[in-house]
Amino acid sequence: MAAETVSNYLETGTVKNSVNFPTVVPPERSSNSIRLVIVTSNEPGMLAKITETCASHGLNIIQQVNNSRGSVAYNVIDVDSTTEKVSEFKTLQKELTMLDGVRNTRVIFNDVNPGKGFARNIDGDYFA
Question: Which among 5, 101, 103, 117 could bridge 41 via Cys, Cβ 3.0 to 4.6 Å?
Answer without folding.
Answer: 101
